[in-house]
Amino acid sequence: MSPESVHGDIVGDHGGAPVAARYRRNLGALRRAVQERLFASHALVVGLGGLGGHVIEQLARCGVGRITGVDPDVFDETNLNRQLLATTATLGQHKVAAARERLALVNPDCIFAGIIGRHPEVPEIVWSTVDLVFECLDNIADRLDLAARCMRMDRTLIHGAVAGWYGQVAVVWPGQDTVRLLYPEIGPGWERDLGTPPFTVGLVGSLMVAQGIKVLSGSAAPSSRRVDFLDIRECRRVQTAV
Amino acid sequence: MRVKVKLLSVFAAHAREDAEGLTAIPEGATVRTLAESLGLSLELVRIITVNGRQVYLDEPLTEGDCVYLFPPALGGG
Fold it and tell me: pLDDT digits over A57-89, tens only?
């Protein structure tokens, strides 16, 4: 599938290969070859709430060619403070349906497949074409299970989580047990409610996408287990091995 | 001796500072004994820095150290 046929109007690029106008402002940050690689990429986004909404929006605008989104839930009023896809018009709607409508408006050349359910319901045939998995979940059990599946399926996982003014992001390369080490033996309910403000969700979601684009583009080399912790109140980042 | 302790996220409620914002600990204390004395769950202490350097629970502390303790975040929905 050539970019000329599916990615909108073509504009010249100072003598280089043409690129669709909608992606021109990606260039500079993304090399043309990287942009082409994104068109052919398939991202699996598990959870379409706070993090997931930001992630699919940015992946589609970056030009990722195929996104599979997974979420069992519908929007309610408590989602409105932070979830990009939650609006007064989408209350009561399945998050998957809202995602499909949104991406059709943002970038109709991005092929979106939605699964109303949880990640164990993602068929093997879908896994077989997935290049990268984004973990946008809100509970430890599902996070650990998804990480274990990624390990079995030999897929790279982008981990992200938020808590009030704090968050963390990690690239989990195949074979790494970073997520299990982050949440060892922690039962449910340990975390006091710190709230989930939109600025933390947006920032962590953006960092997840940035790391994911590096992985998809081949510019990030597998590294040892590490996590970036963010203290947004103090604009502080701490990178650590786990 | 006294150290500066910065507790982030769910740890913040465990702060025990004097009027100068410092926390008293016994001589020879490590990060582990500090965390235990503050009532932190050691399982949740996933990142530790002392004076900006990443360390682990058995790191010995000295007068005036600045210690950051950070649990993992969980939410995302």
Answer: 999 999 999 999 999 999 999 999 999 999 999
In angstroms, the CA A46 to CA A235 distance is 28
Q: How far apart are CA A64 and CA A110, in angstroms?
A: 7
Q: Which residues of A touch B76 (CB under 8 A)?
A: 47, 49-52, 135-138, 160-162, 201, 204
**What DSSP string runs through B20-51?**
TS-EE--TT-BHHHHHHHTT--GGG--EEEET
Q: What is the ipTM of this complex?
A: 0.78
Q: State which fold the A41-241 domain adopts.
A: Rossmann fold (3.40.50)
Tokens for A207, please give them. Answer: 């960092």
Which chain A residues have a beta carbon less than 8 Å from that of B73? 161-163, 166-168
Cβ of B72 within 8 Å of Cβ of A194? The answer is no
What is the C-alpha to C-alpha distance for residues B19 and B53, in angstroms, rounded to an integer?
A: 26
Q: What pLDDT digit, counting tens, does each position of B3-23 carry?
A: 999 998 889 889 999 999 999
Rounded Cα–Cα distance for residues A115 and A121 (Å) = 8
B46 touches chain A (CB under 8 A): yes
Distances (CA, A) of A26 to A43, A215, B55: 18, 16, 39
pTM of the model: 0.89
Domains and CATH numbers, chain B: 2-70 (3.10.20.30)
Is A202 part of the contact surface with chain B (CB cutoff 8 Å)?
no
Taking the Cβ of residue B49 and every Cβ of chain A, the question of whether any pair is shorter than 8 Å is answered with yes
